[in-house]
Specification:
- The chain has helices at residues 11-34, 46-71, 83-112, 136-167, 173-176; strands spanning 118-120, 124-126.
- It is mainly alpha-helical and 183 residues long.
- The chain has one domain: Fumarate Reductase Cytochrome B subunit.
- Strand 1 (118-120) and strand 2 (124-126) form a beta hairpin.
- Helix 1 packs antiparallel against helix 2 (46-71) and helix 3 (83-112) runs antiparallel to helix 4 (136-167).
Length: 183
Amino acid sequence: MLANTKNGYGLVSISLHWLSALTVIGLFGLGFWMVDLTYYSSWYKTAPDIHKSVGILLLLATLVRLVWRLGSTKPHAKNNHKAWEQTAAKWAHGMLYLLMLAIMATGFLISTADGRGIWVFDWFEVPSLGSFINNQADIAGLVHQYAAYTLIALVIIHAAGAIKHQLIDKDGTLSRMLKPAPK
């Protein structure tokens, strides 16, 4: 029930998937909203602090997720999945992870370019590595922004594919990520 089987995902994989999905969407929404805040907004400092803290926690969850994924059984693809769909799914999943890690790395570079660490909800501080390049915050900011837009576009495509498989192909693909596989 906790671990994956050849027929489906376990509770750990399912929980990490949905935690990541909801967090990515929430961080995107918060980031999109907060870039237009003015200095006089009561959220001017609070929103970025929340964004950074949740981003660091997502990074930790993503690292756990990657370790879990590498050490877990990989469920078999459904029999009706075409070869190109399986290849596209592998590339999409790889790109989702790559984009998430790029966004988190550039977020760190933006936030720590001034030499200050990132406080995660006043629980602990992630120390700064300082600035490595000229205009680090600006360059990392552009990469962060475009990677975030690309990630959200890929999330939409990923969700549409899962819905298509569930509703049109009726092959239970989405159901596999909603309830744990029996042993």
